[in-house]
Amino acid sequence: MKLAMIGLGRMGMNMARRLLQGGHEVVAYNRTPQKTEELAREGALPAYTLPEAVEKLPAPRIVWIMLPAGSAVDVHLIQLKEILSPGDILIDGGNTYFKDDIRRAASLEEKEIFFLDVGVSGGIWGLQVGYCLMIGGPRAAYKTIEPLFKTLAPRDGYLYCGPSGAGHFVKMVHNGIEYGMMQAYGEGFQILEASPYAGTLNYAEVAHLWNQGSVVRSWLLELAEAAFTKDNKLMNIKGIVEDSGEGRWTVNQAIETGVSAPVIALSLMARFRSKEKDSFSEKLVAALRREFGGHAVVGTGKK
Fold this sequence. Notes:
The protein has helices spanning 10-21, 33-40, 50-55, 71-83, 98-109, 126-129, 139-144, 146-152, 166-193, 203-210, 219-230, 246-257, 262-274, 280-293; strands at residues 2-6, 25-29, 45-46, 62-65, 89-92, 114-121, 132-136, 158-162. It has 303 residues and is an alpha/beta fold.
């Protein structure tokens, strides 16, 4: 299939690469041309404006945007609505609030443009192992571009979740769970660090051990092992953990629907606290975010 990928950040660039490797044609556009040119050297067709990207696509056009949630998405969708045609398909694969999807889908429907919201998980490892995809929007549009999902995802790694907003809603809850899991690991290792045995424990070995058949084994523990192997006491980073917004949205949704979610709520509060207090648990959460998503950490300056 042929599509345009709009936004070549950490996720968009590697998703475009995986699509190219899967035999699809990719028209690449990024606000700064350097990344467009980088992907063009790998086989993509470069475009330096949104109209140029659309012009290079056959009808019905497929445009996939990978942009930060918020105003940047709205700005691009307003422009794309003007230059796309009825029957074209527009996909938002960023971390978008599901209520924004519902609003945007209704706007695009005025011009009979199909809109899909796709929650994407996999971080910087997705190029190698594939991305977990949670998809919402018109089922007909989903079926039309299903070959793209098959290329991007590992086996059984994508799911049609329902009408507009459903994909990003499921991804929102996924990220809320992620907050809680990382916080639990962080607190557990902080208890170890505060114990009489801290001087004899190698945390990379502990993380590796717990992944050998224990009930808390997970990919996050594999990443914890990798982080501790690089820096066993996490001396080189500060425990400052940013929140991407999805934890807040999950907690707000729990409040709206009267669902008790104390673990997710408190893990969000811990991220707020991390900006005021440097703790070992938040150091590990920051390190895990760096390992799976390439998120920046604040260094201590220590060697």
